[in-house]
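Design a sequence for this backbone.
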């Protein structure tokens, strides 16, 4: 029995030992797997950390390079901004017609800027009037301002056949023929003293008067009435009647103007009275074109200047006469530049060079083939084509005279590339 108990105990001990070893084995396997997984993760994390560190270093190096390039560009941009240089490529300048001019001191005429009016010269206009009473009738010629007419051409007609007095032309003819017969009859009798000298003189006077009245309409009668003809060649202006109007003898109908010579009347403020005697010529601009008209180019001359001002406007009139180039309208109001005392050693630029911004004037000075600088200037006298520069420019500066606004607009719209050396 003891032996059996001992065998049983040993058997249980062996089973317990095997179970214990089995647990140790599985724990070992689990630990191996756990250790292998941790080692793999640690290796992968270390590898990732190493690659991330390298990428961080590369990004830092690239950022440093970009920062250096940016600093380099910023330095050059700062230098360009500091110099005020504007880049406008030569090809672009040629395409917009850019022109420049080197500034040199020269003579310049002092200027009085004022306003005035263009008028017709004496003998260059004629007013046509009604030769008979009656009703206005227009023919084939358009009776409007600007219509060209020839000397002797019929402008309009005046019909009087519907009036209670009858046809004026017919009555003038009858009166003339009657007076002529009476005059010729008495002319043969006065020598024999059959009629008195007084009656004969009265008949002669009546004949002469009726003759003049008849000749005024003779050969001018048409189906529309008595024609009114142009006394000179020119064009119609100041039409004062319309078709169907009744007119009396001597009433103005229209004006015919030749405008070969015109008058320029400048209205000068009283404060310039002491300068009037020094006025030599003038330039002027019309409101309907951009042309500057120079009296020196139009055979212009000064006729007179007033000795007193206008009672209502406080202006002193200065009058010139000049040839009409065919583009100046009589009666138009104009801007006038009176040229007075000459000035020497003056720096002046064309008006087209100026750029105005809120009352401040500037010009563009060329620095090199593609480079320009905006330069503020102080203005003096202006004769319409050129303006005196009091400060801002010096002899030798090359100033843009045409297409200055193209540079301004291009600069304002950021179309001009920055002046850098980074490519």
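Sequence:
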């Amino acid at each position: 029995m003891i032996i059996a108990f001992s065998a049983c105990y040993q058997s249980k001990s062996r089973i317990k030992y095997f179970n214990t070893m089995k647990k140790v084995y599985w724990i070992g396997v689990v630990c191996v797997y756990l250790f292998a997984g941790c080692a793999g993760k640690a290796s992968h994390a270390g590898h990732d950390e190493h690659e991330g560190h390298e990428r961080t270093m590369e990004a830092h190096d690239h950022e440093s390079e970009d920062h250096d390039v940016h600093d380099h560009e910023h330095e050059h941009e700062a230098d360009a901004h500091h110099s005020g240089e504007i880049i406008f490529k030569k090809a672009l300048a040629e395409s917009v017609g850019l022109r420049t001019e080197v500034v040199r001191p020269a003579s310049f005429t002092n200027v009085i800027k004022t306003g005035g009016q263009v008028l017709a010269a004496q003998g260059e206009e004629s007013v046509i009037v009604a030769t008979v009473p009656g009703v206005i009738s227009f023919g084939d010629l358009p009776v409007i301002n600007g219509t060209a007419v020839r000397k002797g051409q019929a402008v309009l007609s005046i019909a009087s056949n519907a009036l209670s007095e009858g046809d004026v032309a017919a009555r003038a003819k009858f009166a003339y023929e009657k007076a002529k017969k009476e005059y010729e009859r008495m002319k043969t009798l006065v020598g024999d003293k059959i009629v008195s000298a007084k009656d004969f003189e009265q008949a002669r006077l009546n004949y002469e008067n009726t003759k003049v009245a008849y000749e005024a309409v003779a050969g001018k009668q048409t189906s529309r009435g008595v024609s009114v003809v142009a006394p000179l060649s020119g064009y119609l202006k100041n039409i004062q009647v319309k078709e169907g109007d009744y007119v009396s003898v001597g009433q103005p109908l229209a004006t015919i103007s030749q405008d070969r010579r015109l008058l320029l009347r400048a209205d000068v403020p009283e404060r310039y009275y002491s300068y009037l005697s020094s006025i030599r010529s003038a330039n002027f601009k019309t409101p309907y074109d951009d042309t500057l008209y120079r009296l020196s180019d139009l055979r212009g001359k000064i006729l007179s200047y007033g000795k007193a001002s206008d009672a209502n406007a406080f202006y002193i009139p200065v009058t010139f006469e000049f040839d009409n180039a065919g583009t100046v309208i009589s009666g138009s109001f104009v801007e006038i530049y009176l040229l007075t005392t000459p000035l020497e050693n003056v720096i002046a630029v064309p008006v087209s060079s100026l750029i105005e911004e809120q009352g401040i004037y500037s010009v563009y000075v060329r620095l090199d083939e593609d480079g320009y600088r905006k330069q503020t200037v102080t203005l003096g006298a202006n004769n319409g084509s050129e303006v005196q520069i009091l400060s801002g420019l010096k002899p030798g500066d090359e100033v843009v005279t045409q297409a200055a606004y193209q540079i301004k607009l291009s600069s304002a719209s950021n179309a001009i590339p920055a002046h850098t050396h980074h490519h």
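Residues 18 and 378 are 114 Å apart (CA to CA).
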